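Researcher: I'd like a structural prediction for the single chain below. Treat it as a standalone chain; there are no partners to consider.
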Amino acid sequence: MMGFGEAIASVYRNYANFRGRARRSEYWFFALFWVIVVLGLCVVYVLLATTGSRDMQLPEPGYGHSGAEFLQMGFVGLALLVLLLGNIIPSLAVSVRRLHDLNASGWWLLLFMVVGLIPLIGSLVTLGQIVWFCMPGTAGDNQYGPDPKVAG
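Model: Treating it as a single chain, here is the predicted structure.
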């Protein structure tokens, strides 16, 4: 099994690599890493947004903040946006490689994303995708490359 740090390093080493296969541990550790990063930045943003200057008691929300606090909130929001945009490609790449490990075409990911936009049906498809990505990969070589458990 690939460790947490090793999995994240592997995803970034293969930043835009849509070929080959990705083990379950690589995919899920990267997903966990992103949940931690996004939640951490969201917590910082909310803390900055809710702890304004208490000496001003104005009824409108947001008016109890100084310019520096708004600037800090803007930096956190911008950092979150840059991180999310900068990780679209590696997220897609590791998802495609995970599908390859399951001996499935990477085009399934496009189907998951399109159908995922349909209310209710999209939720069921997303749940199916999660279950599929939890399944063990194809043992041995397949059409997408060697078994990552054996190769690495």
